[in-house]
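Extended Data, record G domain-containing protein
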Amino acid sequence: MPQIVLIGKIGSGKTTLYNKITGSNEKVQQGGRSVTLAAFQKNSIYGRGFTVLDTPGIGAQDDKMKCYGGILAALSEGPLNRIMIVENHARVDYIVKEIKERTKVFARYKPMITAVITCFDFSENPQNDKEFIINNLAKLNIRSVMFVGIKDSGISICQQIDQILLKSVQQQVELLDSEYLTHFDLNDYEDKDGQFQYQLECDSEDSLREFRKVFNIIQQTITEFPNTEPDLSNKLQALIQFTKSQTEAIVNKFLKKNDHIYQKLLAKENEFAMYLVHNQLKKELANDIEKIVKLTQKKLQSNAQHCFNYIKKCNFCNAIWLKVDGCEGLTYCGSVSNTDILQKQEEAPQQYDVKIVGIKIILEVNLLYLKRVAEIQKIAIKEIVYIKALVAQKAQKQKRNVFRAQSGKTITLGEFGCGQLINWNTMIPLNEGELNELVDPGLIDYYRIQDDEVSRKMHLYKQALISKLEKEINLQKNHLKNQKKIL
C-alpha cells in the first residue's frame, strides 16, 4: 500500500488533516506546545487506500528530541511515496519562505515532496494566491501542491492524494547525519524554561549590535579615505588592529558577563550551550572582520604609492619584479640598475593610535613609537650600510652580459631574468591569489574555529546529539510497530 508522511510546524493543521483522512480523533492545538508527541500511523478510510504517518509538530522549545525522533522514525518506516510538508494559510510570501526552510533537509528528495496548504478557504484572492505559491515553489523544484480548506471533507482530501500517488514511485528515505544535524534544531540545553539559552542568545545579539556600531564607523572611515591620503597604508593597518582589539574586547565582555551561566551549565555537564552561542558570536565577528580586511585591501590597491602597484610579472618568464629606478618605460627583464629610488625614499614607518569620538575616527601619530624607531635606526645604520655593500658585491659578481641579436645591443643582467624587452606599464599585474600570499593580515583566522580542541569538542557534542536522537528514534519505532499490530 502507498505510504505518505505528514511533516509541519505546530498548528499547521497537520493532525487535523490526519484525522480527516483516517477518521481518527487525535488531539489538535493551534500554537504552543505540540500535542502530537509521537508518530502515528493509520490507513486512509476513503479512496484507493494508503497509509499515512503523522509526526510531532516542529517548533516547540522543549521536546525537540521527541519531535525530530518521531519524524526520523516515520521516514524510516519502509519506502515512502510522498513527503507532505504541511503549512497553514498566511501571507503567500511567508508560506513559500517557510516551505523552503522546511524542505532544505530533503534536498535529495525534492521530487517526493508535496506542499499542502491548509485553511486555504481563508484566502481573500484564492486564484492569485494559488498562482503565486505554485510558481514560486516550482522555482524550488517543488512541483506538487495541494490546497485544503477547513470545510473540505476527508473524501475530497483523499481523492486529491490518490491522484498525486498515481504519479508517485516508492522510495526509501534515509537522511544522512550531516543533513539532519545541519537543518534540524537539535540543541537541547536541558533548560526547561529556556532561561539560559534565551539569556545567552540575547547577550550575543547585544554584543553584535555593540560591535557593529564601531564596525560601521570604521567601514565609513576607510571608504572616505581619498586614494591620495598621506601614509594611507599605515593608517589602514592601524584601523585593522583597532578592529581586532574591539572584537577581543566584545568577546571578553560577553564571557565575563555570562560566566555565572557558564558555571551553572558546567555543573550540569552541559557547557555546550555556552560553547555554541559563544562560537556563533565569534563566527559573526569573523565575517565582519573579513569585510574590513577586504575593504582595506581594495583601498590599498587603488593607492598609487602602495607596494601592490610596484609588483608585476614578466610577460615572458613570469618572474616577479619589484619596481625600482630605471623600470619606467622600456627595459629588459633582469636589467641591473645602479640606483634605487625606493631605497633613497626609505622612511621610518608610522604607527597610529585610534580612538572614536562621537561617530568619527581620530588617528594620531604615536610619538613614543617614533622615538623608539629612531633610536633603533641609529644603532642599526652601520649594519645596514655594511649589508648593502655585501649585496652590491654579490650583485656585481652575478652580473651577466647578454647580447640581444634583435636590437644589436649587449645588456647587463643580474642573476635572474630572461633578458626580454619589456615595458613596465604593460607587464602583467599579480593575480588575487598571488597578492594574498604577500598580504596576510592575520586577523580573519583569529576567530575561525579550526583548532583541534574546538573540533574535538564539536565532534563529541554531535555524537552526543546523535546518540540521544537514536534512542528516541528507537522508542518511536516501537510505538509505530505496536500500531501496526492493531492495523
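Summary. The CA atoms of residues 85 and 374 lie 71 Å apart.
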